[in-house]
Design goal:
Elements lengths: L9 E12 L38 H13 L3 E2 L2 E2 L1 E5 L9 E5 L5 E2 L2 E5 L9 E13 L3 E4 L5 E4 L6 E7 L6 H17 L12 E11 L9 E6 L2 H20 L7 E6 L4 E7 L9 E2 L6 E2 L2 H10 L4 H12 L3 H7 L3 H14 L2 H19 L10 H12 L5 H14 L3 H7 L8 H14 L1 H8 L4 H13 L6 H13 L1
Parallel strand pairs: 13-14
Antiparallel strand pairs: 1-11, 1-12, 2-6, 3-17, 4-5, 4-16, 6-8, 7-8, 8-11, 9-10, 12-13, 14-15
The protein binds adenosine-5'-diphosphate (ADP), magnesium ion and zinc ion (ZN).
Length: 487
């Protein structure tokens, strides 16, 4: 079972369908709140409960957000799209149909760029094509409790979603993960969605097939439903690729099916086979006129978009001389990118600032599991601290713990360094006497050095650094010791 998911003989083919909740206050066709975590069935009305005689009214804000999402992923926004009824029965679907778009979706074409060969991140970006983006309403939630009782919560019924369908362009579980991260980043950049996975605002179905390398025809696919974390997507896709290869190598055949992944056991279960696939009997919703989007509205929306992550990455590379990998890390969110740019501008040494952001700021955030925006550190404070290091006024070693202080409580780096007595020792006279002391106290080490063991120098350096509480410049100390010992 530990077979590699892609090997010399087999190629994986993956296409993803993402359901993403649009950031609105109210539902897609009624005024009910979309607030998360309220008492069950508290955000409902005759429209989303499908009471007779109620009529849907389209939420303008949801349409605007959907257009922004489409433009940010390079799609063509169609002048005309049509809401259709997708008919099926389920307890959490009171209308007996879901309003979606089918034959005429909001947007078509487009692409999302992913970095290739995730390892180094230095590779060229690769375009994953999008088939379409359409608008639809969410269904309610069935809650299966321990006592084998199923309860229905309709708060989520009618919440606005877009479904983003990719072409089968992805070739590995890692690429699927990279695509989802890139897509989520874009949606958050252009503020059409918080895309919070834990709140179910960004959910994914993965379609998977395999074929022998060199073959151009697609294999039979299966569909993994409702994966709600990036890790689960990658794990589930990997497990499914392995399963399919094994079935075919053992002379079997892949049957088209809808699958469910159990993350606890790492196992895949069949929900239904294609033979019992639904016929949704789609037809245009007679209660809603076709959605007309004028070219002018699209133009205005395009103009209002902020710089996209891919453009920012390219600019960070050319403007600040950063590597593709560094630019990728620093543009992971709009907040982080803005923070870096402000600090880099304040200090005037972008590479040095990039280093400190990537190494120390990100580490401090990770350790505390917080978002940058929720902390006390300002770009001005970071740039001041980095400048003090670059000017030799405090050693990097002593400055690093101060990043965590800035993250937690903020403050003025200049004052922090002074309060804690961390100013670098630049007094050569003092350093000389400390070096002399260390040499006198460690005759064995000195002999070792003279006997040709270069490692001993590091030990002696460590002693000097200790005596100066890390406040001496390591380069200066090394030079000083080498001179004294050599002479
Ligand atoms: P459905 O609506 O039944 O889910 P679609 O034709 O809309 O079917 O396809 C859904 C997704 O499946 C798309 O993301 C597409 O790229 C992907 N897909 C289609 N054929 C294959 C295949 N042979 N292998 C992997 N993915 C595929
Ligand atoms: Mg599907
Ligand atoms: Zn309602």
């Amino acid at each position: 079972m530990s077979k590699a998911s892609c090997n010399q003989d087999w190629e994986a083919v993956i296409g993803l369908e993402v359901h993403n909740q649009l950031a609105t206050d109210s539902k897609l066709f009624c005024g009910c709140s979309v607030a998360y975590g309220s008492e069950p069935n508290h955000h409902t009305c005759p429209v989303c409960l499908a009471l007779p005689g109620s009529l849907p009214v389209l939420n303008r804000r949801a349409v605007e957000n959907a257009i922004r999402a489409a433009l940010a992923t390079h799609c063509t926004v169609n002048e005309r799209s049509v809401f259709a009824r997708k008919n099926y029965f389920y307890p959490d679907l009171p209308k007996g149909y879901q309003i979606s778009q089918f034959e005429e979706p909001l947007a078509t074409g487009g692409w999302v760029e992913i970095p290739t060969d995730g390892e180094s991140g230095e590779g060229e970006a690769r375009r994953i094509r999008l088939t379409r983006i359409h608008m639809e309403e969410d269904a309610g939630k069935s809650i299966h409790d321990a006592a084998d009782v199923t309860r229905v919560d309709l708060n989520r019924t009618g919440v606005p979603l877009i479904e983003i369908v990719s072409e089968p362009d992805l070739r590995s579980p890692e690429e699927a993960g990279a695509y989802l991260r890139a897509l989520r980043e874009i949606l958050r950049y252009v503020e059409v969605s918080d895309a919070d996975l834990e709140k179910g605002q960004f959910r994914c179905d993965a379609n998977v097939s395999v074929r022998r390398r060199g073959e151009s025809e697609l294999g039979t696919r299966t569909e993994l439903k409702n994966l709600n974390s990036f890790r689960f997507v990658e794990d589930a896709v990997r497990a499914e690729i392995e399963r399919q290869i094994e079935v075919i190598e053992e002379g079997g055949e892949i049957r088209q099916a809808t699958l469910r992944y159990d993350p606890d056991r790492g196992r895949i279960h069949v929900m239904r086979l294609k033979e019992d696939a639904h016929d949704y009997r789609y037809f245009p919703d007679p209660d809603l006129i076709p959605l007309a989007i004028e070219a002018e509205a699209v133009r205005a929306a395009r103009e209002s978009l902020p710089e996209l992550p891919e453009d920012k990455r390219a600019r960070f590379q050319s403007e600040y001389g950063l590597s593709a990998y560094d630019a990728g890390q620093l543009t992971a969110s709009r907040g982080l990118a803005d923070f870096f740019e402000a600090a880099a501008r304040a200090h005037g040494a972008p590479k040095s600032v990039a280093n400190w952001v990537q190494r120390d700021v990100l580490a401090a955030l990770k350790e505390r599991e917080v978002e940058l925006e929720a902390t006390a550190i300002t770009p001005e404070a970071l740039s001041m601290l980095v400048k003090m290091v670059d000017d030799g006024r405090v050693t990097a070693r002593n400055a690093r713990p101060l990043v965590a202080v800035l993250v937690e409580t903020g403050g003025d780096p200049e004052a922090l360094v002074q309060e804690r007595g961390l100013e670098a020792v630049s007094d050569t006279g003092l350093l000389e006497s400390v070096a002399d002391e260390v040499i006198a106290a460690n005759p064995k080490a000195v002999d070792g050095f003279r006997g040709g063991d270069p490692k001993v120098l590091n030990f002696l350096m460590g002693q000097v650094m200790k005596k100066t509480q890390g406040k001496a410049d390591p380069g200066q100390v090394r030079e000083l010791l080498a001179r004294k010992l050599g002479g």
